[in-house]
Amino acid sequence: MTEALKDIELYQKVLHNKDSSALRQLYRKYEKLIYSFSYKMTGNQEAAEEVVQEVFMKLWKKHAPYDESKGKFSSWLLTMTRNACLDALRKYKKHETVEYIEKDSLQVTYETPEDIVEWKEKGTAVRECIALLKKEQQHIVHLFYFKGKTQQAISKSMDTPLGTVKGRIRLALKHLQQCLQGKGGNFE
Q: For the chain, how many structural domains are there in total?
């Protein structure tokens, strides 16, 4: 059974049977990824921790149904994470100014040296693939995924039609997927 099918099976157990063991397995597998993504997007440890908790609570409470026909489970989780980060940023901006911080390495505690090596290899592969994109695609990916800008905000700030922004994001993701698959890594 592939990792993707195993994830979907675990998700189904959580969704239909309230299987806490299945939720724990998904948590163990994705917690570091979700935290890292959240921390990179928010630049705030407390907000990143809240996002992780919120994402897994949504899984548990069935607030966010996954549809296999719309993409990979891991992509869906990261989309949920991105949306939760945007909500967290809005919440924190009411109380203080939160600045996005670009960091090469996040201060995440890893369990084993193998985990550290795996995360560094994946990070390097993603950065290498992003560097191969056209400059305009790199800029839009950076704004959308790492700065948390909406497609509408990107369109307005770049004085580019919304359809063009959406098309560039789709094309960039297609190129990134092909590049990452070519590197032979498991990026699900």
A: 2
pLDDT beneath 50, residues of the chain: 96-110
CB 77 within 8 A of CB 29: no
CB-based burial, 169-178: b 16+ in 10 Å, e otherwise: beebbebbee
Render pLDDT for 20-29 as a digit per residue (tens, 0 to 9): 899 999 999 9
- In 19-68, the DSSP E strands lie at none
Q: Do the domain assignments include residue 63?
A: yes
Half-sphere exposure in the Cβ direction for 67 (13 Å, CA)? 2
Domain containing 163 equals: 112-188
Q: Please write the tens of the pLDDT for every residue from 75-95.
A: 888 888 988 988 888 876 655
The token pair that represents 173 in the structure block: 């993701």
Asked whether residue 106 is assigned to any structural domain, the reply reads no
Measured between alpha carbons, how far is 122 from 37 in angstroms, rounded to an integer?
13
Model-wide pTM > 0.70: no
Identify which of 4, 2, 22 has the alpha carbon closest to the alpha carbon of residue 14. Answer: 22
User: 80 and 142 share a domain?
Assistant: no
Which CATH number covers residue 160? 1.10.10.10
CB 133 within 8 A of CB 172: yes
